[in-house]
Design a protein that fits this description.
mainly beta, Lipocalin, 10 strands
């Protein structure tokens, strides 16, 4: 891992674990995604998952995702959402693999949909916040039978809104 990547990851985890989610400046192109910022955690089927997002600033949000089963990390992902010349892009690097990009195709006050129809799986990544405060994440894609996986998280203890 490069020194810059390590520094970015350290900053992301510091903000996420501290529950610090400063508001995005009015001119930040990712301001409408500020609802995603914070630390989120959940458990299903003996597997704990968590996702941490730094609030938008300077046209960039950084995130990390981790899954743990049986006391061992079984998967992780480095994430970022960035604004590039008026286009919002979600960039995922699962297990440290080369990044895959998904363009924002739909957004609302508490919903975002990203797509890359040229990718094998997933082709769509969705995030939405429900009225009970739960964050949902879903990945979808084609196949013999269309596949989808969904996670539901609550704000992690000690995290601020």
């Amino acid at each position: 891992m490069t020194r810059i990547a390590r520094a970015l990851l350290t900053a992301a985890l510091t903000y996420a674990f501290a529950g610090i989610a400063p508001a995005a400046p009015d001119g930040d192109p990712l301001r409408s995604l500020a609802w995603l910022a914070g630390s989120w955690a959940g458990e299903e089927g003996g597997r704990s998952t968590e996702e941490h997002w730094i609030a938008p600033r300077g046209g960039l949000m950084l995130g990390v995702h981790r899954e743990v089963a049986g006391g061992k990390a079984v998967s992780f992902e480095f994430l970022r959402i960035e604004a590039r010349a008026g286009v919002v892009v979600y960039v995922a690097s699962p297990e440290g693999a080369p990044p895959t990009e998904f363009r924002l195709v739909q957004s609302g006050p508490s919903r975002a949909v990203f797509e890359n129809l040229r990718h094998d799986f997933p082709v769509r990544i969705l995030y939405w916040l429900t009225t009970d405060g739960s964050l949902h994440a879903r990945i979808e894609g084609p196949g013999e039978k269309p596949r989808a996986f969904e996670w539901v998280w609550r704000r992690a203890a000690g995290a601020s809104k």
